[in-house]
Amino acid sequence: NCKGCHNPQTHDFNAGEEYSVSQIVEMIKSNPLLSGITISGGEPFCQPIACSELAREVHSLGLSVWCYTGFDFEEVSNSQLMRNIDVLVDGKFDESLKSADLQFRGSSNQRIINVPASLSIGKIITMS
């Protein structure tokens, strides 16, 4: 749990509603305005198989996949889920580094990473 998280209700693993990947994909297909999806917390890497399947299905629809995680890229780079993500915003939210001036992230310790490029050359490629 990240102190100051804007989604604390997502931390309880026993709460929420359960959906199959195919149900989520059908919801995505029914919205022609989508150009991509964002997988965020709770923590996507606590469900890497389902999230990877979802990301793979979304890519097959020609949509992009962003993912937010409290883990650092280096900790999850070998996960199957990483092979199906376009952009990863990594790192725990740090309230002391919070800034409203940051785009797509809450604190300055978090990185916006081009995952395919990073995996292909074995070096983290960040995006501004």
Name the features:
128 residues; alpha/beta; four-stranded mixed beta sheet; 4 strands; 26% helix
Outline the structure in words.
This protein has 128 residues and is of the alpha/beta class. It has helices spanning 21-29, 48-60, 73-76, 115-121; strands at residues 36-39, 64-68, 87-90, 111-114. It has a 4-stranded mixed β-sheet. The radius of gyration is 15 Å and the shape is globular.
* Radius of gyration from CA coordinates: 15 Å
Note the quaternary state here.
single chain
- Head-to-tail CA distance between termini: 26 Å
Shape: globular
**SSE ordering:** HEHEHEEH
Number of strands: 4
Average pLDDT score: 92
Strand order of the largest sheet: 1-2-3-4
- Largest sheet report: 4 strands, mixed
Secondary structure tally, helices? 4
User: What class do helices, strands and sheet pairing give?
Assistant: alpha/beta
Low-confidence stretches: none
Strand content: 5-15%
In percent, how helical is the residue content? Answer: 25-40%
Secondary structure layout plus pairing:
Blueprint lengths: L20 H9 L6 E4 L8 H13 L3 E5 L4 H4 L10 E4 L20 E4 H7 L7
Parallel strand pairs: 1-2, 2-3
Antiparallel strand pairs: 3-4
Helix pairs in contact: 1-2
Summary, kept brief:
This protein has 128 residues and is of the alpha/beta class. It has helices at residues 21-29, 48-60, 73-76, 115-121, and strands at 36-39, 64-68, 87-90, 111-114.
